[in-house]
Design goal:
membrane; Arp2/3 complex 21 kDa subunit ARPC3; 238 residues; transmembrane helix; 2 strands
């Protein structure tokens, strides 16, 4: 991918993505309480922020996430106090994809990132399960089957999609997208946002982390598929 200079057209497009992010996050997100607090939010407000980073680079991506979080909180705090850590996470949600697509992926690599991503998923899922079990919790056989199906689907489906659509959309290969979104989610959601929730609400790491991992196993493929579908229109923003 080639780096691009910031221009008015990019700023206008980033502003539109910011507005879409605010709407998706503040109006169409599902809040799931854990231990009596709003510890888990499921939504697609991060997609426009990541797209901004992918298209226009890490700086505009970070600005998109920052502005979306600040204005979004002012419009609808969603029942929680403001915490600057979440603004940092939002900024990184745009910065990290921009960093990958404008610098790390600048040289076309033949490496299949699905393999790396699969290893990360197995390790993360295993760590999460160990933490959950060591806390004295039990896992039912049905839950274990669903959990394993989710992990296998997360690993195998991208291989199939990447092989099928690689020639049609080589600039935004599916394996690169899911790898980028996985890294972004791990850093911003699983690490930083979990830390912010622990600081704010004094929640136990063992209480919330396994649920956040399980949510990530669902949302990462969905976000990747949506961004991959939208990527065929990215050329019109350049």
């Amino acid at each position: 991918m080639k780096t691009s200079k910031i221009n008015t057209r990019h700023l206008v497009a980033a502003s539109l993505l910011t507005a879409i992010s605010i709407i998706l996050t503040r109006m169409f997100s599902l809040i799931i309480p854990i231990a009596g607090v709003q510890a888990l939010r499921i939504g697609f407000g991060g997609i426009p922020v990541m797209i901004s980073g992918i298209l226009f680079g890490p700086i505009i991506g970070a600005l998109t996430g920052t502005v979306a979080d600040l204005i979004g909180f002012m419009l609808n705090p969603m029942g929680g106090p403001y915490f600057p850590g979440f603004t940092l996470s939002a900024a990184l949600s745009g910065f990290i994809p921009g960093l990958f697509y404008h610098y790390i992926f600048k040289k076309d690599s033949k490496l299949n990132f699905n393999i790396i991503n699969g290893i990360m998923v197995v390790l993360l899922s295993s760590i999460s399960a160990i933490i959950y079990l060591q806390a004295g919790n039990n896992i039912s056989f049905e839950f274990f089957i669903v959990y394993m199906i989710g992990i296998l689907g997360f690993i195998l489906i991208p291989f199939r999609l990447n092989k099928k659509y690689k020639k049609n959309n080589d600039g935004y290969r599916f394996d690169k997208l899911i790898f980028t979104i996985s890294i972004t989610t791990i850093i911003t959601s699983l690490i930083l946002n979990t830390l912010w929730l622990i600081i704010m609400y004094k929640l136990g790491f063992i209480v919330i982390f396994p649920f956040r991992v399980l949510t990530a196993l669902v949302t990462i493929p969905m976000e990747t598929v949506l961004i991959f579908i939208f990527s065929k229109y990215f050329k019109y923003t350049k």
